[in-house]
Amino acid sequence: MYWKQIHAAWFGIHFFLLTAVCFAGVFWLIAQGSTILSSAFDEYARRAELVATWCLGKEARASNPLRRGIATYLHAAGIQAGYSFFAPNVPSQHRLTFELFYDDGRIEYESPRMRSKAAALRLESLLDRLPEERYDSVREALVKMLAFSVWRKYPDVKKLRATLDSVHAPGITEFEQGKTETFQPMFSFDFSLRDEQKQ
Amino acid sequence: MLKLPGSQINAGVSLAQKWWQSFCCFLFPPETDTWLAVLRIGLGMQVIVYALFLRSDWHYLFASSGKGLVGREVGEAITSFDSPLIPTLGWLVAIGRNFNISEEAVLSIAWICLLSAGCLLLLGLFCRPAAIVAWFVHLCAAESGGLLAYGADSFMTTALFYLLLSPLPDHYSFDHWVAKTKPKNPRALGFWRRVIQVQLCFVYFIGGLAKCLGNGWWDGSNLWRALIRPPFTVVPPDILVRFKYALPVLGIAICLLEVSYPVFIWMKKTRLIWLVCIVAMHAAIGLLMGLYLFALVMIVMNIAAFGVISNTATPQSATETDAQ
After folding, report:
1. From the DSSP assignment, how many helices (H) and strands (E) are in chain B?
2. Do B66 and A148 touch (CB under 8 A)?
3. Which of A30, A72, A116, A136 to mutate to test the interface with B (most CBs of B within 10 A)?
4. Sign, Cα dihedral of B73, B76, B78, B81
5. pLDDT over 60 at B16, yes or no
């Protein structure tokens, strides 16, 4: 009997949440100063982002039932993230290299690998997220696990150094001039079987 | 206290009623279920391709720490920070443990369930349970993957979420042939199609707006960077550089196409042009960047939402079904 009203109410709530998610993402990009807009907009964007995230309950405590309810719904509907893929600009690529140190002084180089291209895309996604500020707390643990996945293939290795580089691809003109990609080290971790030391 | 005269109240009420009626006309247009068949078959294919593409790496991606790439615990911990109620593969592994089923076996069962659900959706057998299983297992995998997930996963979750809520089965499915199900309410069919249409408008408008804010989309450099970026490198840069003058035009065209989608896709005169351009853009993303899953799910959603010619059910039959 009330199915139209119920459906209309769901429609309103669903797209209100989606609007908040999408605009929170866009305002975040502006607040980061990564757009063509003047830096005068940064502060306004930061405030607008706060309003959008408040609508999503993200300003409430982590244990708040409303916040959890909204988050669960957003994930279930696949609308927890905005749609600003490759925007405002295509992000830099990242490369993780492992230096494998053997007892006899040998050094080999290896990278984490997947069998299929579909899974390789996912690995790239992970590597691109590693330098992000929000993953500071789990970065070392993630790199350690990636290192361990390599270690399983090379059990004789005594020490392992993981280095994440930011890859700067050449522009069109640079490419025509024969320039190739350059690598900028971002961080590295040393791991050994007994202890781990951050560099 | 200010008192409104009765005539003003009546005018306000009738205005609200008119607004509600026109809103209902927009939200509940009578529709046939052809679009739903397209969505079901398309998502069936999508789920099958997803499962087959990840077949060789499934265990490596989703095994626990010490067995897989990074261990699914990290992804699950990040997800549970958002909410512990979001399903993950860890839930299934925990259930399996109660029945003495190993983690490896649970992951294999999950993969088989996903593939089977995809096949059932494609055939139209047990449509609703298949849609629920596909959505649930895919959601578990996407959430456990966490940092390994990318755009295609979000769109798959969204599309499967809408599919499982839509009035299944459609009359092209085996379920309809076998069980001779009653015709679905055309207005309910119209409502769920409208939801997908509005969703796509959000997707492209926000995507287009965010791209317009980046300088690299106006001079073609972003398109260049996107196409030469491993592992998306399908076309060698040596060949790509020959089309360097086309890149700025294509970059601007993508921005404008996306940002104007919510306007021109609704107009009958421009709908086909925008739809063809958007589908072509996704086909190009799939072929030139190797993002096949992303391309397929977007093409399926676009065709289901705007590509299927609206064989609008007659208002008479819509009213009859409403009454039922």
Report:
1. 17, 0
2. yes
3. A116
4. negative
5. yes
Low-confidence ranges of chain A (pLDDT < 50): 195-199
Residues of chain B contacting residue A118, judged by C-beta atoms under 8 Å apart: 53-54, 57, 292-293
Q: Is A192 on the interface with B (CB under 8 A)?
A: no
The three-class DSSP label of residue B125 is coil
Helix, strand, or coil (residue A138): helix
A60 in B contact zone (CB under 8 Å) = no
CA–CA distance, B40 with B131 (Å, rounded to integer): 8
The first and second tokens of residue A108, run together, are: 């080999």
- CA B137 vs. chain centroid, Å, equals 16
Cis ω for the linkage preceding B231 (within 30 of 0): yes
CA atoms within 13 A on the CB side of B181: 20
A159-194 pLDDT, tens digit each: 899 999 998 888 898 988 888 888 888 988 898 865
Average pLDDT, integer, range B61-78? 83
* pLDDT at residue B29 greater than cutoff 90: yes
Q: Which of B83, B155, B254 is the best substitution to test chain A (most A C-beta atoms within 10 A)?
A: B83
Question: In chain B, where do the E strands start and end?
Answer: none
CA atoms of A25 and A79, how far apart (whole Å):
12
* Three-state secondary-structure class, residue B158: helix
**B169: preceding bond cis by omega (within 30 degrees):** yes
What's the CA gap between A147 and A129, in Å, rounded? 17
Q: Which DSSP string do the residues of B39-67 spell out, in sequence order?
A: HHHHHHHHHHHHHHHTGGGHHHHHS-TTT
Q: Does B57 contact A149 at a Cβ distance shorter than 8 Å? A: no
List the one residue out of B159, B177, B166 whose CA is nearest residue B123. Answer: B177
Contact residues on chain A for B66, CB-CB shorter than 8 A: 148
CA distances from B187 to A72, B142, B180, B195, B317 (A): 28, 32, 20, 12, 10
The domain locations on chain A are 3-77, 93-198
Query: Two tokens at A4?
Result: 């139209």
Rounded CA separation A71/B38 (Å): 30
Q: What CA–CA distance (Å, rounded) separates B32 from A60?
A: 43
Query: Would you say residue B5 has pLDDT above 80?
Result: no
Which pLDDT tens digit goes with each residue over B225-280?
Answer: 988 887 777 888 888 899 889 999 999 999 999 999 999 999 999 999 999 999 99
Q: Tell me the per-residue pLDDT of B159-207, one tens digit each, with 9 for 90 and over.
A: 999 999 999 899 999 999 888 778 788 999 999 999 999 999 999 999 9
